[in-house]
Amino acid sequence: MSSHPIAFHAAANKVAAVAAANEVWPVADVAALFALPFNDLLWRAQQVHREHFDANEIELATLLSIKTGGCPEDCGYCPQAARYDTGVTAQKMLPVEEVVLAAQAAKDAGATRFCMGAAWRSPKDRDLDAVEEMVKAVKALGMETCATLGMLQEAQAERLKDAGLDFYNHNLDTAPEFYGDVITTRDYQDRLDTLGHVRHAGLKVCCGGIVGMGESRMQRAGLIAQLANLNPYPESVPVNHLVAVEGTPLADAEALDPLEFVRTIAVARITMPKARVRLSAGRRQLGEGVQALCYLAGANSIFYGDKLLVTGNPEVEDDQALLARLGMRGKKALS
Length: 335
Ligand code: SAM
Ligand code: DTB
Ligand code: SF4
Hints:
The chain has helices spanning 5-22, 27-34, 38-52, 96-108, 125-140, 154-163, 176-182, 188-200, 217-228, 258-271, 283-296, 316-325, and strands at residues 57-67, 113-118, 144-148, 167-169, 204-206, 209-211, 236-241, 276-279, 301-303, 329-330. By secondary structure, the chain is of the alpha/beta class. Helix 11 links the parallel strand 8 and strand 9 (301-303). The model is unreliable at 1-19 (pLDDT under 50). The site of S-adenosylmethionine (SAM) has 17 residues, from loops.
């Protein structure tokens, strides 16, 4: 770069202009959506939803914890962090056969996507040998595959892509300004770097966050703006409601107005029109009425199965009954 001050400033301004042009959703615009009257917000979200999706069709994704507990990180919401006394004990990685049996059962129950989660800060290269086997075997069942294993290097993302992985889940969790109140053992940029590696390797991105951790509305808007301004925005956006787990620092987080959760779903739908917006953790606590409002607000994916990773989720029969009452049906399987 030229050291001439005018040329330098011209270049810097150009970078700033490009950054602004890339910011499709300024936080103020996202906050303005949050501030709409509830019915106006849901009406807009429904319109956007129907432009891009069949509003009565929902993706069913089943989660499995392939390596539970003993995690060295300090995520303030997480029951699997070794440092919090939550009753979750560290276990070894599941054998591949057990994972395949769980995926087959999920498929038989109607799930089309299978997501494998591990309580790691980041996987070791040798851990990936087993994960590659799992991905290949689950893919062979005709399911979409997703993994969430912590931070990845680019070469690790490429290995997973080569094994046939479709999606990688890595959440931004919250707005940059609130992040340090929740997690200190890795920073926001680490997460953005992993998302860059995942994208570069040609994997589809599953990225969302958690609401109800004591953040402000502006910080909820900040999270959605971060997600919507990723270029391109994620193909899947899990919106988790905090599951407050005893023993974690967030066990006593102040309860969020459930309608504010519905608003967050609606704003995600409007700002990321073609994404699968997943009504994720916390459905048991939200109850059926609020879940129905989330579907109206544009959620079109759920975690389906009696368990999330270590905490509970609605029973499969109850989900099937609710979806039937709403006239909704699961997305069709690939094969
Ligand atoms: N260890 C990996 C990581 O953190 O990237 C993968 C698994 S981690 C459990 C995946 C995500 O689950 C977290 O980023 C967080 O968004 C969500 N999560 C964990 N505990 C939660 C809780 N108690 N309530 C809601 N969401 C939670
Ligand atoms: C995501 O966004 N939510 C899922 C999945 N990605 C891995 C995990 C939710 C975990 C909820 C608490 C637990 O059971 O550990
Ligand atoms: Fe570990 Fe992931 Fe839990 Fe954080 S969210 S403590 S990285 S398992």
